[in-house]
Each structure stands twice: as C-alpha cells, then as structure tokens.
Design a protein that fits this description.
Length: about 550
C-alpha cells in the first residue's frame, strides 16, 4: 500500500508531504483547490505522462516521491527480476526538468520508464469517470471476463499460447520449404533464375574496383598522352632538353674536380641527371602503354552496369552477391529434398491445429459458463446501486484463432425496461458507467494484484439512495484494499478512516496549494460544508454531518 507521498514544485504545490493510512483515505477540498493535482502527481511518479507544463512557474525541475509497503507477491516477483531489493519496502522517485529530461529511481537504482511501468502496474489501480473509457472499449471486454474467471482462464490461455506458438513455428518451417506444391514450384523457378543470372555473370571478387580504375584511366588516356608528351619534350626532346643540359653541365664541372666544392656540385648534378633520366624512362613507358580504346571503354561500362544491377538485386558488393548465390543454392537443394519433410510438417500441423482448436473450445466453454455468473453478479450489484431493471449481458462471437483463443467478447447493456440491449458505448451514461465500473471493482476484490485503489470523483452526479449505496460499496472495498478517494458527496466522505484537506492560499503574490490531515471536529465541519454548500455552515448541516459519521 501507499504509505507516504511527496511533491516538489508540482503545479500549485511548492512542497507537500502526505501520509496515507490503511483503509479509506478521503481527500476533501473546494473545487479548484488542487485535489486532482495529487492524482496527476501520483500518475506521474508511477510512469504516466511527463508534462513540462506541470512544473511550478519559476522553477526548473519538479519531483515526486512515493513510498510503498506490504507489496503483493506479483509486485515482488517483478522487482526480483529487476534485481531490486525490497527488504525495506519500495521508494519510487521521478523528476522532470524544463528541458524535458526525466530521471527515475526505484530504491536508488536508475530505471527506464518501461521497467517502471512493469513495477507500478501491480501497485495502484485508478478508478474515475474517465477510466470508464477502458470499460466501453470492447477490445478490453475479453480481458475483464478472463480476469473475473481468474487462474483457470490463465492456465487455459497459457496452454493455447503454447500450441499457437508451436503452430506458427510449423507454418514458418513450411513456408521456408516453399509451402504447398504450386508455391514450391514457383519458388524453385525464382531461385533457379537468380542462380543462373549470377553464375552467368562470372563475377570475381575485387573485379569491380579494377574495372573502375581501368575505366578512369582509359577515359583520361588522351589527356595523359598529351601531357606526358609535353613533359618528355621539355626533359629530353631536344638538344636543349633538361637531361642534355644536366649531362653537359655535369661534365663541364667534372674537369674542375681538383676544387672540392665544385666536385660536390658535379656529383650532385650527376645524381640529378640519373634521377631525371629515370623519370624520362618511366614517362616513355607510360606513353607507350597509353592507348585510348573506345571499344574497351564501352565493354568496361557494360560490365560495370551488369555488376551494379546484380548488386542492386542481391547484395551491396560482389562478395555479398556471391554469398547470396551460395545461400539460395542451398535453399534450392533443400526444396528438392523437401517433399518428405513437408509431408511430415503438414501432418504435425494437422495435429497441433486440432489440439489448438480443442483448447480454444475448452476455454470458450469456460468463458461462457462464467459469463452467466458475471452477468448475474453485475446485475445484482447495479440493482443495489439503484439501477433496478438493468440488464447486462456478455455477447460472444467466433473470431480467428489467436493466443487469446477464438472468442470475441462484447458487453451489451440496457438501463431501462423495454429498451433493447446495446453496446456500452452507445447506451450507458457517464453516471451509469461509473456505477458499472464500481460494480466490476466490487465483484473482483479477490482477483486484484494491487493493494491500493484510487477513486477520483467516481460518485460525481450521484445523489440520494444511490450515493448511499456507492458509499457502502466503497466502504466494502476498503476492507480489502487501501482506498484513496476524492469526493464531493457527504455520505461517501463519511465512510472514511482518514481525512486530508486540500486548500489554496496566496503567498508573495502567487497562488499555492497545501494538504493537511484533519480529524474530529474539522472532519465534521468539512462534511457539513458539503451538505450545506454555503459559506457559513449551518447547525443543521453540522448535526447531519455528525449523524453520517456515526453510521
């Protein structure tokens, strides 16, 4: 259960600490005081939407902390899987900064939002008028029914899921072997075409790079020939060429070898002469091998187009294309040898499919049996909640087999005698949905894994005897769970075991909210103010409040 809760810089709350008690916790306060902000903060720390607009004006970060004790077995199991120690209970902290960054810690360990939601789904259940949206969504109705049935449905669904996964695995293997005979023949034809196309290309690993280099060279051959010829002419083309001049200069200085510095110059010129001569020889080789060939250029271009086309189909590189070819060769060989395997798999599929159908039928029969019980219990609950003559039915249709079985379930409803039963979304009012939601909560007390239920003005729009019955239902639920209830209904408020009052005040030209625990005469006064509705509470309202609290 939730033992304590704190907020910092959350909307109208600068700093707030709340201690919750076991049983029925009632949150009171005038409209707009900030009661719903507490629920928003609780949603946030449990993994709900992080809204930067809820950071208090002028602050950069908001923080919410929640402390839980007496965790359920399911909750402990999730925490064990995440290697989080729970000897001292559970402390969840979540912050949000104005740049949108959020930080989550559970017992000091930093967790992801996904892991936080795994933990908190076993902690608190929210139940308000807006939560009835989940009830009118027919996609959730099968879940409600299976939850009502309990472990028996869970075991049957686990068996169905096992067979369903087995069937999907068999189908995957059959598909890999080409499926039925016509499909297999079509696939073999495709594979053979791909193999032939690749093999006929006679690809060589590394060939593409060589072709691109050669293509670039041939494309530049004319320019290379022209420039190399010019260079050779300068270096060795005439009597005034560089090599001739170097040679003559070197010989001229050599006759003066008795002078040490001139001998050094002669040696250096000789080295330069041989270096330039070597360059000339290299350039002459280049020139003799530079032959622009338009036919070769077109052949290389066509070859590169072929390679590019194959890479587009079968792999990013020639190596990838060759690997793909080997892979489909093996697949083709497997297809040729697959008839025996396919026969075996199809027989196995028939067996598993029959088992799955049988398991789905078993679960469907179980659901229909419990659906009658659910219908009766819901109608009884609604009758006690002053919805006499209400009819509630679980409608079944056959759907495609899935991991949930083959049932498609929809709740249909009529609140008045003589009226046709219709989908909840088309016929139930907000107040009727609230009572229906409360009826579900009341008949599923032994099915819940959570220890705390939050009721956010679920009694809105209800008065008189109906309000009294709603109060009794909530009081009954509080015998099994910790309840946190926001209410404006006096008779509901009177059932509380602990009371919190939310008020709003001004400080330093800003509006703030605060929460304080109240008891005794303060509780009497606050409930009386709900009865009276005026600024000055009358003695009659005070006496009525006292009578309600004595019941």
């Amino acid at each position: 259960m939730l033992t304590s809760f704190s907020m910092q810089n959350f909307a109208l709350f600068k700093h707030c600490e709340i201690d919750f008690k076991k049983g029925f916790n009632v949150i009171l306060g005038q409209s707009g005081a900030g009661k719903s902000i507490i629920i928003d903060a609780l949603n946030f720390v449990l993994g709900g939407k992080a809204d930067k607009n809820l950071i208090r004006t002028g602050e950069k970060t908001m923080r919410v902390d929640a402390v839980f004790s007496n965790l359920s077995a399911q909750g402990k199991a999730v925490l064990d899987e995440l290697a989080i120690d729970t000897d001292d209970g559970l402390i969840i902290s979540r912050t949000l900064s104005e740049d949108g960054k959020s930080n989550i810690r559970v017992n000091g360990a930093i967790l992801s939002l996904k892991d936080l939601k795994l933990i908190t789904e076993n902690l608190i259940d929210f139940c308000g008028q807006h939560d009835s949206v989940g009830l009118i969504n027919s996609n959730n109705h099968l879940m409600f029914l299976d939850k009502f049935i309990g472990n028996e449905a869970g075991k049957d669904r686990a068996e169905i899921e096992k067979s369903y996964d087995e069937l999907m695995d068999i189908d995957k293997k059959i598909k890999a072997l080409g499926g039925d005979e016509s499909e297999r023949a079509r696939l073999k034809e495709i594979l053979q075409f791909q193999i032939t196309e690749i093999e006929n290309a006679n690809l060589l690993d590394g060939e593409e790079e060589e072709l691109r280099t050669r293509y670039k060279y041939i494309s530049s051959a004319e320019r290379i020939y022209e420039k190399v010829s010019e260079a050779l002419k300068v270096l060795d083309g005439t009597a005034a060429g560089v090599t001739t001049q170097l040679f003559e200069a070197k010989n001229t200085l050599k006759s003066l070898s008795e002078f040490e510095n001139l001998q050094e110059c002669s040696d250096r010129l000789e080295n330069s002469y041989y270096e330039v001569k070597d360059v000339v020889d290299t350039l002459e080789d280049v020139l003799s091998n530079t032959d622009f060939d338009q036919n070769e250029l077109e052949r290389i271009d066509a070859r590169l187009d072929l390679i590019k086309g194959l890479e587009r189909k079968y792999g990013a590189t020639i190596a990838d294309v060759l690997v793909f070819c080997e892979k489909i060769k093996k697949q083709l060989n497997d297809l040729d040898d697959s008839e025996f395997m396919l026969e075996k798999l199809n027989k196995e599929r028939e067996r598993v499919s029959a088992e799955l159908e049988e398991k789905c039928q078993k679960l469907s029969d179980l659901r229909k049996k419990y659906a009658l019980e659910l219908e009766q219990k819901i109608e009884n609950e609604l009758n006690e909640l002053q919805m006499k003559g209400t009819r509630f039915k679980v409608d079944f249709e056959r759907a495609a087999v899935s991991k949930k079985g083959f049932d498609q379930v929809k709740f249909i409803f009529s609140a008045n005698l003589g009226q046709n039963m219709k989908d909840l979304s088309k016929t139930a009012s907000g107040g009727e949905l609230s009572r229906l939601l409360l009826a579900f909560k009341n008949i599923m007390l032994d099915k819940e894994s959570v220890s705390t239920v939050v009721f956010d003005e679920i009694d809105s729009g209800i008065s008189g005897k109906t309000a009294g019955k709603v109060a009794e239902k909530l009081e009954n639920i509080s015998n099994y769970f910790q309840i946190i209830c926001i209410t404006h209904t006096p008779v509901v408020a009177s059932k509380g075991n602990a009371y919190l009052l939310v008020t709003k005040y001004n400080e330093d030209n800003t509006t703030l909210s605060k929460v304080e625990e109240i008891a005794n005469d303060d509780v009497v006064y606050q409930i009386a103010s709900l009865i009276d509705g005026s600024e000055k509470v009358s003695d009659t309202a005070i006496n009525h409040s006292k009578q309600l609290l004595k019941k």
